[in-house]
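for the recovery benchmark. tokens below, seq after
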């Protein structure tokens, strides 16, 4: 079924992660990168699954992405053509930059 209205983030996706979330070993080793991800969103707007679609090249940064996003990302649920809430997906990218 096609969503008449796609799931939409509540608040700014840029606020989902902060410098405080940077894995300490990655920070010490000065590793960074951009992770592509797909979030599966339930009809209640909660994230039910996270998949890395494009790796940072560092397992700990990828793991942190999918460990933290389901806890923090909130969505307005997608709405089907019948007006009922439905599951959807959200694709995004997050860049891990070393804190200054």
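predicted aa per position
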């Amino acid at each position: 079924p096609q969503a008449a209205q796609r799931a939409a983030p509540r608040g700014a996706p840029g606020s989902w992660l902060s410098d405080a979330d940077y894995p300490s070993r990655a920070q010490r080793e000065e590793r960074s990168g951009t992770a592509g991800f797909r979030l599966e969103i339930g009809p209640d707007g909660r994230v039910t699954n996270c998949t890395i679609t494009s790796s940072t090249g560092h397992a700990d940064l990828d793991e942190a992405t999918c460990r933290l996003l389901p806890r923090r990302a909130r969505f307005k649920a997608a709405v089907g053509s019948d007006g009922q809430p439905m599951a959807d997906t959200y694709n995004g990218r997050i860049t891990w930059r070393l804190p200054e």
